[in-house]
Each structure stands twice: as C-alpha cells, then as structure tokens.
Amino acid sequence: MKVTPRTMEEAQETEARELLERRAARLREQGETAVEEAVHWIAEFPLGEERYALSLETLRAALPLKMVSPVPLSAPHVVGVLRFQGQVLAALSLASLLGGHGWRQDPAVLLVVDRGDGELCALDCEAIPRPTTLPMSAVEAARVRAEGPVMEVFTQDRQLIHLIDLKRLFASRGTGGRNAR
C-alpha cells in the first residue's frame, strides 16, 4: 500500500528518496559487473618501427622543429637550442639518447618535457604524440622489471609500447641540466 504524502514538501522528499534509491541500485549493479582498473595516461608516438611513449604528465608542449637554432660543435645528441616561455632550452635527439634508434622519417616536432628533476628540455619526434592510456598494473609490473630508462609495457590488446622514464633516462646520461658540465 502506497502512502499519499500530506504536503508538497513531503511529496518532494518522497520523490527524492525514490530517485536516490534507484541510483543506488544502478550503482550497485555497475560495481558488481565492472571493476574499473586504474590507468596511466601517456603520450604515444612512433620511433622508427616501434611505438614509444612518455608519461603525459611530463609533456608541456609540442612545437615545430623549425624553432631550433643549431649549436656548432655541440655533442651528437644536441640538436640545438630554442626559446620556450622565456627560457632557453636544449633540444635533444631522442633517438640518440635511446642508443641510436632510427627515425622512419625526419623529426618535425619538438616535445617540451619535464626531465623529472624540474628542468625542461625538448626532444625531437616524428609526429605529435597522441594521448592514450595503459593499465596502471601493467606499468607498475614493467617498472619493476626494467633496468634502464625504457620499460616494455603491453596494452590490453597485447601491443608493445616502450614507455620512457625521463628521470631515469637523464640520470643515466647526465645530460642537459644547468649544472651539467
């Protein structure tokens, strides 16, 4: 037997309570059927024939490579320098930093990134990266296995992505910082 409310206020309270009960039931059903896994956001791009990525949180900008001024007699991994938001940044060859992987086509983009120590630098890249996600559990498992700056992470559809840990990359190379000699 349904009780009829006496006042408009009681009717609104009853309607709100019924709505909340329906929502709670719907959420319980969703919670039982689908447990959402935590994800790690990445910026994915090609490097030669392979897929590479950086953590999206490290990416600050994507700029055209033509903004770089060459530096004569610089180290092989230094492409040049550029101005970004009032700072002079080193533009570095990502392929060279990773040990000589070749590009499929000439780089056309610079990725301004946080190296992991609060310093910014730019890395050359073939194309503007696309944002996507990886399962956090796969990233953590790869981090444990990885000995160097590149972690091999498999996507949910079993494709391999090489996730670059910039902090490890620059710590192992000792390149590009203000205090580097």
Question: What would you note in describing this structure?
Answer:
The protein has helices spanning 8-33, 94-97, 136-145, 166-173; strands spanning 39-47, 50-55, 59-64, 78-84, 87-92, 109-114, 120-125, 130-135, 150-154, 160-164. A hairpin with a 5-residue loop joins β9 (150-154) and β10 (160-164). By secondary structure, it is an alpha+beta fold. It is elongated.
Helix proportion: 25-40%
CATH topology of the largest domain: OB fold (Dihydrolipoamide Acetyltransferase, E2P)
Q: Strands of the biggest beta sheet: in what spatial order?
A: 8-1-2-10-9
Distance N to C terminus: 84 Å
For the structure shown, list the relevant keywords.
OB fold (Dihydrolipoamide Acetyltransferase, E2P), 4 helices, five-stranded mixed beta sheet, Chemotaxis protein CheW, CheW-like_dom_sf, CheW-lke_dom, disordered C terminus, coiled coil, 181 residues, alpha+beta
